[in-house]
Amino acid sequence: MPELKGWKDIPIGGLIVEAGNAVEYMTGGWRAFRPVRDATKCIHCLMCWVFCPDSSIMIQDSQMAGFDLDHCKGCGICAAQCPTQCIEMVEEGRIED
Amino acid sequence: MREYLAIDGNTAIATAMRQINPDVVAAYPITPQTSTVQTFSQFVADGLVDTEFVTVESEHSAMSACVGAAAAGARVMTATSSAGLALMWEIVYVAASNRLPIVMLVVNRALSAPINIHCDHSDSMGARDAGWIQIFSENPQESYDNMIQAVRIAEHPDVLLPVMVCHDGFITSHGLERVEIFDEGEVRDFIGTYKPQMPTLLDIDNPVTYGPLDFYDYYYEHKRQQVEAMRHAKPVIIEVGREFGRKFGRSYSLFETHCLEDAEVAIVVLSSTAGTTRVMVDRLRAQGLKVGLLKPRVFRPFPAQELVEALSHVKAIGVMDRSISFGSMNNAGPLFLELCAALKIYGGDMPIVDYVFGLGGRDIVPSQIEQVAHELLKIAETGERGEVVRYLGVRE
Ligand code: SF4
Ligand code: SF4
Question: Which of A58, A95, B127, B207 has its CB surrounded by the most CB atoms within 10 Å?
Answer without folding.
Answer: B127
